[in-house]
Amino acid sequence: MSPKKIAAAAALLAFSTGALAAGIPAQKFDKALHDQLPTQVQKSGVLRNAVLSGAFPPYTIITPDKRVEGAQADFAKALSEILGVKIEHVFTASFPAVLMGLQANRFDLSIGPTGDFPQREAKNDFVDYVQEYVVFAVRKGNPLKINGLEDICGKRIAVMAGGSAERVIRQASDACVKEKT
Fold first, then answer.
1. pTM for this prediction
2. How confident is the model at residue 154 (pLDDT cuts 50, 70, 90)?
């Protein structure tokens, strides 16, 4: 079974048992899923999870003592219990480094939110367990009247480099510029 199918089955099992709800219950080890892990992972007992070194609440919160908290940590704990392996958080500086690190075998997976796009699917398998939308934080009172992508034309917008919001905002900006020329 492919790692994608193993992760999907484990994710569904975790969600179906309420693993990500408040008061997270312990998960039941699933030997059938464990036995489908790559031999190297079964032998080492470790899956290496790529974690951005900066915070990305509510998914990833890095404590001053370098512990990972938030939804990513909760999901990793549940997945670890189901698969019967330790999930080791490996810090990386940027989002593009996550995808490159997966290709270079520095990481086994990335539990944090990652945009699932066709060009990324060519090199990576995805298990979509959360749906995100591009949202904006604006100055109090929203003086620039930014209510959606259509309102950002000509405005300076800050986003996480390499993240899915960057791609969506660049496409909207390119379309706006093209429309005005």
1. 0.68
2. confident
